[in-house]
Structure formats: structure tokens, C-alpha cells
Amino acid sequence: MKLTDIPSYKNLSTPFYFYDMDILDRTLDTLAELSAKTGIHAHYALKANNEKCILRAISAKGLGADCVSGNEVLLAAECGFPSDRILFAGVGKTDREIVDALNVGAAFNVESLPELKNIDYIASKLGKVADVQLRINPNIDAHTHKKITTGLDENKFGFPEAAFDEVIAVVKSLSNVNFIGIHFHIGSQITDVEEVFQLECERMNEIVSLFEAKGLVVRNIDLGGGLGVDYNDPDRNPIADFNAWFTTIDKYLVRRQDQTVHVEPGRSIVCQCGSLVSTVLYVKNGQNKDFVIIDAGMNDLIRPALYDAYHRVDNVSAMADGRKETATYDVVGPVCESSDVWGEGRVLATTRRGDIVALRSAGAYGSVMASQYNCKVLAPAVFSDDESVPTYEPLF
Ligand code: LLP
């Protein structure tokens, strides 16, 4: 089933997330090919989308998992990611989560000294040794939205340079943590790929040398995620520019034979395969503009309200029946908040009540950030390789 097949189903119960598994497969194949060519391993960041079908498709292609909660670690293990390829990151790991991750056999991306000591303590209680990477704050500007940039000095993430001597001394003194590498993550939706990732690699080269000069052997180099996607034209660019990303890393990162390089893509793997499918409830003619009111709201996809994010809106019914005429609309959701707006001044095919529309590029940070605000029901997931779609019993 393709997105454009959806209007042919009768009595569709919307909104729902639609995932085009063919796009996901092609994305994963592109990534796997580049990984094999460059020796750069990818850990998928589960926070972008945690649908089990999607996780199983990703683990089947040999990727590792980057997790930010104990439940993500457990889910990754359940969905086939091998335990030695599961990483557990995040600034606020609870004792319960640390225990779960140690039992699974995941490695940790550690963000502070008290956390490092706590992991050592819990590992000693369980008679285990935890593999740890230290997350360093590289103080790099990722040229992205301020709410999704994470590598600047004033951020809550990672160790700043001023803390290096102390953390190195502490790592050496602890017996239940085993230092394995250095981790960066500088931000998300990075579109200045060459420029920003070159800077990141150069900074990583400095930090690795500094740590090794102080007697810690850096086996893993983890550059985090962040590769951006084309929200404006998902049909022209359904697959993110992994080639530019991996080529930049290959060119600027200094690495030895005994070192492995990792990245942690989330958005770039799952974003373009997902759309939020919705029904037009009303077309309302205002004084100066016309509104298309749809049944999907900010509770289903919060990115526009939270980050002013752009998601393309396609009238899929009009695409399917070949309607050519266009009009300009503000497309809005049903939630009682003025920020529940999908887009202002959007040019769409002339739109009618009952049309099916798709909010595109919604596979990443869409369903995972949904809420039940206004007592709405969470939008279910529909997969292109499974013909079943949610339907309703007609009321009349
Ligand atoms: N690794 C770490 C440590 C991260 O914090 C993140 C994302 C990733 C990897 C994956 O980054 P990606 O490849 O997806 O850019 N909710 C926001 C994005 C938040 C990203 C948080 N960290 C959005 O909807 O744009």
C-alpha cells in the first residue's frame, strides 16, 4: 500500500501514522552500504521512533541501538538488537534503569561525575563491570534550532573541558567501570553537513589525543546523531544525505586500526518513511483567508507548535483523483490552542470536507512525542506492508 492508495479505503478512522516500509528499507540499505564501505557503524537512536516493526527492520540490518531510558534499553533488546550493540545515554539515569541496562549488558554514555560513581557503585553491587563512554561537550554550534542544539558549553549535556582532569582521575580509580570511548552529540536536523561535521571531527581528534596523552585508551569514537532531512521536499529527497555525512567523517576523523567509529542517527533513518494521515473536517471561509480544519492536532505531532517546524501538507485525495485547481489555506488542527496550526498560506489542491491529507516527514519525533491532550486517543500506526487500516462503523 502506498500513501496515495489510502483515499480508496472507505470509512477510514483517522488520524493515524502511515509508514512506508519501502522507504525505510531503501534508507537502511543506503546506510548499510556506506557503513560497509567506510567502517563507520550506526546505532539507531530509538527516541526518534519506537514502533516495534520499525525497530525489528532496523536491527535486522545489523545496526546497534542508542537508548535514553531503561525502557528503551529493554525494548531494543526485545526487538533484536544485540546487547553488545546497545548504548544507554542520558543525563538523568535512575538506579532502576542502570540495573536494567547492566543486566541487558548495554554500555553507558556517561554525562557527569556523580553518575559515573553511581554506575560504578551499582555495578559493584551486581558483581559486574560497566563499559562506559564519556560524553564530552565539544562546544560546537550545530547551526540548528536552539531547542535541538546540544553541543554548546552552556548545555546540560556531557563533560566540559574544565572537568577532564578530574574525570580521568576518577575513571582510573574505579574498579567497576571500564572506559571504552568518547562520545559527542552536537544537535539535530543539521543541514550544513560538511561544515558542521568537519568541525565535529576536528574537535574529536583533539579530545581523543588529549585523553590518550593522559593515559586512557580510546577504543570507540562516537560522533552522535544529527543528520538533517529535507522537510520541504520529501518526495525529491526521501533518503537523507548519508553519503555526505560518512564521507566527511571518513575524510576528517583521525582513527587507528584498533579504533571503531560510531554514529547515532535517529531522524535521518525514520523521518521520511512516516506521514500523519488525517481527514479534512471542515473548510471554513474566513474574512481574509480560508481555513482547512483537519482531525489531526498538536497532540498527534507537536513539532510545529514546539519548534515552529515545517511539515509539508499534501492533499492525498486530490492527488488520487487528479484535481488540478489550487487555493491558499491556513491548515489547522482541532485542539483549543492557537499554536495548533500545521501551516499558514499553504497552496493545496482545492480542498473539500472528507479529503484525506498527509502531514509528511512525520516518522521521526512524531508518534513518540504524541500526547492525549484534550482527551484525544493516540494515533495508531499503519504499515505499508500490512494492508489493514483503521476504520469506523458509519454513524448514519
Ligand atoms: N544521540 C543523542 C545523544 C541524542 O540526544 C540524539 C537526539 C540522537 C543521537 C539522534 O539525533 P538525530 O539523528 O535524530 O538528529 N524532538 C526533536 C529532536 C530532538 C533530538 C534529541 N536528541 C525534534 O523533533 O526535532
Structure description:
The chain has 396 residues and is α/β, with parallel strands linked by helices. The protein is 30% helix and 21% strand. The chain is built from eleven helices and 16 strands. It has helices at 21-38, 52-60, 70-78, 95-104, 113-126, 164-173, 193-213, 242-252, 267-270, 303-307, 316-321, and strands at residues 16-19, 40-45, 64-67, 86-88, 107-110, 130-135, 177-183, 220-222, 260-263, 274-285, 290-294, 313-315, 326-332, 341-349, 356-359, 381-383. Strands 1, 10, 11, 12, 13, 14, 15 and 16 form an eight-stranded mixed beta sheet that branches. Strands 2-3-4-5-6-7-8-9 form an eight-stranded parallel beta barrel, surrounded by four helices. Helix 3 (70-78) runs parallel beside helix 4 and helix 7 (193-213) packs parallel to helix 8 (242-252). The longest helix has 21 residues, at 193-213. It is elongated and about 70 Å long. The two termini are 28 Å apart. The model has no long low-confidence stretch (mean pLDDT 96). The site of ligand LLP has 20 residues, from helix 9 and helix 10.
Helix and strand sequence? EHEHEHEHEHEHEHEHEHEEHEHEEEE
Small molecules bound:
ligand LLP
- Uncertain regions spanning at least 5 consecutive residues: none
Structural class, from secondary structure content?
alpha/beta
Number of beta strands:
16
Beginning-to-end CA distance, first to last residue: 28 Å
Mean pLDDT: 96
Q: Can you count the helices?
A: 11
Residue share in β-strands = 15-25%
Rg calc: 23 Å
